Amino acid sequence: MRVLDQIKPTKRDETRVLKIIEKVLQNLDLKDAKLELGGSYAKDTWLKGNHDVDVFVRFPYDKYKEKDISDVLKSRLKKYKVVHGSRDYFQIKKGDYVFEFIPVLDIKSSKEAKNITDVSPLHTKWVKEKLNDADQVRLVKKFCKAQGVYGAESYIRGFSGYVLEILTVHYKTFFDLVKNVANWKKGIVVDVEKFYKNKGDILEKLNKDKLSCLVVIDPVQKDRNAAAALCEDKFDKFVAKCKEFMRNPSNDFFVERKISIRDLKLESGENNFLTMKVWPLKGKKDIVGSKLLKCFVYINKKLSEEGFNVINSDWEFNEKAIFWFYVKNGTIGLYKKHYGPPKKEKKHFEEFLIKWKNHEIKKDKDKIYVELKREHTHLKDFVKNLLKSNYVKNNVKKIKLKNY
Predict the structure, then answer these.
(1) Does residue 126 form part of some domain?
(2) Are residues 369 and 381 in the same domain?
(3) Which of 401, 388, 157, 390 is nearest to 290 (CA)?
């Protein structure tokens, strides 16, 4: 595919990157710890333009298994930025490249791991041994990036690079992967190493909290679902886009596009179009991104609860974020129904009657309710007031409703 010409690093790119990596690693003296290239650079699955380099700092197991190896590594580095996670790791920037030094125990089996990050080098080793054609992973990654389903961060909850690598090993080629995904149903199971007899065996033996819309058995840790963080929205979108691709294959599916406000407005048709510009709080992108997601979900929920019919909505986060909503109705009635508990909940039922004794108690089938006067009946007035709430203020630095 011509797409590979655009996304695959050239020999010149590889030579340049390897020289930078070698120079950075040569200048580090980490005593008895071993340095090992990780991530997509080690697997040769990186995309052109990717400047994030993972480096595992592997500490001898017996000597360091009871020590805080993050603190040990911290004492041996200079000019770094601390990134907090299940175990702290460290960023060092060199030109356009960001090196992440990740402390891990040097283990031979996932059973020895003291922290989930200890297993990461085993992931790298498995992919390097099993992957026949790294270019197939490149195509899969680029496809997923362009369709907005790539990334396992908590504010994205999409497909991690490792999960896509496992799926590519399983299905062998980009086309076979897409063809199979187009027919996926929720609950699909991929066990590339065949640790279990069948799907029933997996569902019986795997912890229920590890099950999700997609189960990908980690090939180096059989009791782990590598896709546990994937949300249903991203699963559904991936399946839908694979179906579209199979109906009409095109290089357009590999083109990453930012949200176009103009296109969104045209697409909204006769619906009310709302868009908000959002400035995130300071901090690690995964954390502030999660707060943005909470804010987006909160606004969506409040719109629906108030009686506004949200037809479609989504958001995008780069340096700043954009929230957008298509809302069918621009106004709602002056009064809304406030429902009470069912009669069988005697205590709460009586408390409701006492609380609203000065209102007319009405019935709606087996429920009781009172009618309360709304403060705002127009969509934009309601949203402007909603954006002043403490919940919104606590999760974003600044948010502004745009007018079109």
Answers:
(1) no
(2) no
(3) 157
